[in-house]
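Quick one, tokens below:
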């Protein structure tokens, strides 16, 4: 979707679209509706109920939201790995077009920023789906008549709640670790932008070990959270 939005100005200005304003209006309306009602669209960030809430059970919605957050973390792992590699390519510079290497680094950094923002957004949707499931479940617990069955239901509720809390805490931990990593990358990108010379590269090299350690630690945290999400989904499905 993001790629489509980036291409939208070119599509609008193309000769094939000119004179077809009605179809363009329909396309934009559909795009807007999707963004407003999609579980992964901008409407979810505004608190607008997504279309899946009208036909999916809260448990299924939570599973799909956890899967989406896990996918975002997987993408984050790849983007941060790429940014680290591009940074190492600059600091290990031994000839060639330094400006080309910097451009790749800058692109990788911005892709990492986008990936981190996507992770944060998906985690928030996991939180809202968890609250929706637990709130409804809590109300249902009050409707039981048999004390023994009610205790079993309460045990299941408490177990799911604790598992969800642990998963969300793990996801939030990885989210918080992206902040200093992105800040360190941004400092280097901004400095190198105006100082593409060997002295600047030497300055970046002095920070390379610390940045690499932080990125690797972040990746380890993300992969652990991804595994935890897989286990949580398996427990909900069982």
């Amino acid at each position: 979707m993001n790629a489509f939005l980036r291409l939208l100005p070119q599509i609008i200005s193309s000769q094939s679209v000119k004179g077809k304003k009605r179809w363009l209006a329909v396309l934009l309306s559909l795009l807007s509706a999707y963004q407003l009602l999609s579980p992964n669209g901008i409407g979810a960030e505004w608190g607008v109920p997504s279309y899946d809430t009208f036909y999916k059970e809260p448990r299924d919605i939570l599973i799909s939201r956890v899967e989406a957050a896990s996918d975002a973390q997987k993408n984050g792992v790849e983007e941060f790995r790429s940014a680290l590699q591009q940074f190492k390519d600059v600091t290990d510079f031994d000839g060639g077009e330094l400006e080309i290497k910097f451009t790749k680094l800058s692109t990788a950094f911005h892709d990492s920023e986008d990936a981190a923002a996507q992770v944060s957004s998906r985690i928030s949707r996991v939180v809202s789906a968890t609250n929706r499931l637990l709130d409804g479940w809590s109300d249902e617990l009050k409707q039981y008549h048999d004390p023994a069955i009610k205790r079993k239901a309460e045990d299941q509720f408490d177990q799911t709640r604790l598992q969800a809390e642990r998963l969300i805490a793990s996801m939030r931990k990885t989210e918080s670790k992206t902040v200093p990593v992105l800040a360190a990358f941004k400092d280097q990108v901004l400095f190198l932008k105006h100082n593409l010379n060997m002295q600047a590269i030497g300055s970046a090299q002095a920070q390379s070990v610390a940045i690499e350690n932080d990125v690797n630690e972040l990746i380890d945290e993300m992969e652990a959270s991804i595994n935890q999400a897989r286990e949580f989904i398996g427990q909900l499905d069982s």
